Amino acid sequence: MTKNVLVLPGDGIGPEIVAQAVRVLDAVNEQFSLNIQHESALVGGSAYDETGSPLPEATLAKAKAADAILLGAVGGPKWDKLDMSVRPEKGLLGLRSNLELFSNLRPAILYPQLADASSLKPEIVAGLDILIVRELTGGIYFGQPRGIRILENGEREGFNTYVYNESEIRRIGRSAFEAARQRGKRVCSIDKSNVLEVTVLWKEVMEEVAKEYPDVELTHMLVDNAAMQLVRAPKQFDVMVTGNMFGDILSDAAAMLTGSIGMLPSASLNAEGRGMYEPCHGSAPDIAGKGIANPLATILSVAMMLRYSLDAKDAADAIEAAVSKVLDLGLRTADIASEGCETVSTQAMGDAVLAAL
Amino acid sequence: MTKNVLVLPGDGIGPEIVAQAVRVLDAVNEQFSLNIQHESALVGGSAYDETGSPLPEATLAKAKAADAILLGAVGGPKWDKLDMSVRPEKGLLGLRSNLELFSNLRPAILYPQLADASSLKPEIVAGLDILIVRELTGGIYFGQPRGIRILENGEREGFNTYVYNESEIRRIGRSAFEAARQRGKRVCSIDKSNVLEVTVLWKEVMEEVAKEYPDVELTHMLVDNAAMQLVRAPKQFDVMVTGNMFGDILSDAAAMLTGSIGMLPSASLNAEGRGMYEPCHGSAPDIAGKGIANPLATILSVAMMLRYSLDAKDAADAIEAAVSKVLDLGLRTADIASEGCETVSTQAMGDAVLAAL
Ligand SMILES: CC(C)[C@H](C(=O)O)[C@@H](O)C(=O)O
Ligand SMILES: CC(C)[C@H](C(=O)O)[C@@H](O)C(=O)O
């Protein structure tokens, strides 16, 4: 059976890094006879420029039909002044929400070859391997009512709503516990239950979910403390589960602990395990078009896609091994450049991974 | 004229650390003939235990009458199961809100003597000196509506409201720009304006405020990026200004960059400059009563109080110099213990600061 992958290069460095990832996908497709087909579509600022919408109907239709989606990145200063409703980010948020990709898996892993890149002391981060499970289709990102209104005294007031119901919390809780089962069997749920009622419910439902997984340990931590603990002693965590907004902040902090966010892939899954795969980093408009961006996070996103959505574990393993080998060979893009290593271009990094495959 | 200070020891290690801070306050009071009087009152869990309320009427009345307030810390597992409305944190939030202490100044400073304590590489944090200005009486902490309700399908739903009006944003903006004028003249405003309307307004009003301060530079950063940049290169910041929730998370992360959160004071000020002063760290119930807590953040909070609310700059300078001298002498409490230094008790640290005065 043919599997269909939709490729969404997006904005900024998106097209460059996705190009290398697609070469890798093509290579394993042939090598492992995976019968994968792919086509491309527009999303984000480039889609807005061409069609007036950051998520054109055609793209959404293809996304719904696909078995998996590979995304580069969206956004850039060029579109910063646009109305919120047509900004590039709405393309990304629209995909997440329309496809119900509620479970966002963001690993923060320190590659031993890149230990130096971290701003933290080696002993604090050596061997780091955390998985942040972030709720992606609810919370304050999507809560209603929202907007900016004029008050009676003529002043403006901005407002958003942070809201979760039980089933939303339960399903992301189960994602986290399932993931923990495959790993260190520990889930730390992050809330602000000493202040926010919505996270009091979050904490309660996590306790209920924990009963379904007696083999997995559940602890709770306040979000401010979690931000501190990530800086102080990140290796204390196995799986962290949290809402959309806290997850946005904590997963970026966690990724940066490794010093090499250019290496980190992510998966956003729906209830059937179909998903969208993208690097953790953004569209980096400042280096777009220069051919120096790191394609490895996107290449590793292909590996995640093969593993989680395309039932091709061997091909995923092969890609991850190839990336590791390339690092062993001392090849680095500029973002992870290091003394004694060779700094290479986006394309040359793609070449090297292909050669290692 | 007599100045009145209200002392609120609170819970956990609160009473121990406040006791040392009050000894220091008494000493400078005499030394500099400051004419300061102080009395104590109950707040937090200990107030709940005694009166059924985390913020008894009597405490609030005294707080309103005081020229300044010195707080230890509130909260602990003992009160975790209480209804949100009477939890210890409500005592703290009630003080902030009733006294309109909207401007929370949280310095993150690395003491050169404690450079080793950080989990970050020395070159990343040496000389670190950031000021986080956090809005403290609005945003999602106080927004209405809020609660947990039962939906038609029988499910529970939790909800909170993230709301700011123009004047709330303008006054905290001015606080930040005023503070920046006394420092590096750079303000970085933190928002999530690519997703949340309330922070679109935040960003706009910050731009308006910036026009009043042509000598101060304003930049903007998304909160997820800010969390990353704090880990990657914290010295890029001078003053950061943000809302209540983001400020809670980012200020704790920033404090932890120094590795010695037991050293960091904070001020919460109202429009007249009256304020509440407290250590950045919490009530640390795990070490309460052991006499090992670090009193220096609370002692330094006294210095902030003298400077900002009691017009006693010399006394503030004297306390800060005394703390620095004690660190030079190699005295450390357990939280900042270091090889080659002497680990001392809470009381002994208080003694040492008094001796150095
Ligand atoms: C681009 C933006 C809307 C997005 C988010 O906030 O979710 C990004 O920061 C991310 O984390 O994927
Ligand atoms: C105790 C809690 C309510 C409080 C807050 O969230 O503001 C604390 O974390 C702080 O930062 O002062």
UniProtKB/TrEMBL annotation, chains A, B:
Site feature: Important for catalysis: 141, 192
EC annotation from Swiss-Prot or TrEMBL: 1.1.1.85
Pathway assigned to this chain's UniProt record: Amino-acid biosynthesis; L-leucine biosynthesis; L-leucine from 3-methyl-2-oxobutanoate: step 3/4
GO BP terms: L-leucine biosynthetic process
PROSITE patterns attached to this UniProt entry: IDH_IMDH (PS00470)
Record keywords: Amino-acid biosynthesis, Branched-chain amino acid biosynthesis, Cytoplasm, Leucine biosynthesis, Magnesium, Manganese, Metal-binding, NAD, Oxidoreductase
Cross-referenced Gene3D superfamilies: Isopropylmalate Dehydrogenase (3.40.718.10)
Name of a matching Pfam family: Iso_dh
Keyword Cytoplasm: yes
Details of cofactor binding: Binds 1 Mg(2+) or Mn(2+) ion per subunit.
Domain Isopropylmalate dehydrogenase-like residues, every copy: 4-353
Binding site for substrate: 96, 106, 134, 224
EC class of the enzyme, as a word: oxidoreductase
Keyword Chaperone belongs to the record: no
Names of the cofactor(s): Mn(2+); Mg(2+)
Reactions listed under catalytic activity: (2R,3S)-3-isopropylmalate + NAD(+) = 4-methyl-2-oxopentanoate + CO2 + NADH
Binding-site residues for NAD(+), renumbered to this chain: 76-89, 282-294
Gene Ontology MF annotations: 3-isopropylmalate dehydrogenase activity; magnesium ion binding; NAD binding
Compartments, as annotated in UniProt: Cytoplasm
Highest taxon listed in the record's lineage: Bacteria
Binding residues for Mg(2+): 224, 248, 252
Protein family: Belongs to the isocitrate and isopropylmalate dehydrogenases family. LeuB type 1 subfamily.
HAMAP family: LeuB_type1 (MF_01033)
Protein role: Catalyzes the oxidation of 3-carboxy-2-hydroxy-4-methylpentanoate (3-isopropylmalate) to 3-carboxy-4-methyl-2-oxopentanoate. The product decarboxylates to 4-methyl-2 oxopentanoate.
Subunit structure of this chain's protein: Homodimer.
Protein's name in the database: 3-isopropylmalate dehydrogenase
Gene name in the database record: leuB
